[in-house]
Amino acid sequence: MAITAFFLLVAMPILVILGMPIAFALGVTALATLLMLGNMPLNIIPQKIFAGIDSFPILAIPFFILAGSIMTIGGINKKILSISNAIVGWVDGSLAIVTVAASMVFAAISGSAVATVAAIGGITIPAMQKEGYGSSFAAAVAASGAVCGPIIPPSIPLIVYGAALGMSINDLFIGSLVPGLMIGTGLGIAAYVISRKRRFPKHERMSLSASLQAIREGLWALLMPVIILGGIFFGIYTPTEASVIAVAYGIFVGLFIYKEITWKKLWDVVVEAAISSAVIMMILAASKITSILVVANHLSEAVTNSILAITGSRFGVLLLVNVFLLIVGCLMEANAAVVILTPILVPLVAKVGMGPLEFGVIMVFNLCLGLLTPPVGATLLLGNDIARANMGQTTKETVPFFAVGLVVLAVITAFPQIITFLPHYLK
Predict the structure, then answer these.
(1) Angle, CA of 272, 277 and 373, to the nearest 5°
(2) What are the tens digits of pLDDT across the range 95-132?
């Protein structure tokens, strides 16, 4: 057990920090553990690698990634921005609030934070810079708004979590909706307060006819998240089927309605989405060996007993788990962290009465906050790169938005009924 703990909890993160691809780090440490223990045949490796991706729900991942890319080249992201501007573009710091609002809508289609900051921030960050918001603040707003991506359904990390436990991804998606709306609303309020304090510009209020025109022109884009989430929530189709529908709908709208997709562009995004999906699939495949080692060597029981020896209270255990996940989120990609830590932490929180549904949402929420923190914060790095800003200043500008995330995290941890009431009600 000590060997397993060392390789998986110490050696593997070190290899990742040193620059080894996550899938390779998982595979190398799992192989080293097997060789050191000598209690399992090595032919288990190809079997478990295949089992790690032989899952129908996991098929949703490449399709949702592709749907997000198609939205960008099909002009759907621009229509979402136009609608957001028509609704909230007249308040102080309008562009910052529009960025958050559009990110929430885009998140309800792509399920990816990186795709959200690229598609929405790629447009609004230069616009905010032109209006004098400051490069670092513009990058911080876009990076923070994109955090909604993996929280508001559909969420790729939640698909990974659900597939790891064999539980209903529909329930996870429904349970994450309210926390996702909470953090999106909180980020919008923070952007407004800061913008008003710094006297950032606002746009003129659009006339009713102009607002209706913007909504009418963007109606096809606005229907996309409604079709995806509505179908999932009411059991019309599974998340995997919804991901295929999202791709088909995005291609149709981009080709025949907005007419911004060309076959050349479509081929390029298919290749790009295939590469991104392959990275995640390799992580899932390699992580299956890790999960088997965790179970076979009773690592989860050891971690559970160690933490319960420190504190047996529900509050104390959940506080320690949240702090641990926040640290992990700073150092590791969310999907990799989910597959490694799920078999270890789920039995622990079960001891204090927290079910896998609410913990899955809390876990993903925790890890997504890591997208705003160096050194691995993907949305922070991408937003800063788009703005060409100073990383130190951008990190400082994200602090108020990160604080909003911590407040929402504390609320949903203290009151997990916020997560569970909607899935139970719809059933």
Answers:
(1) 95
(2) 888 889 888 888 887 777 888 888 888 888 988 888 88
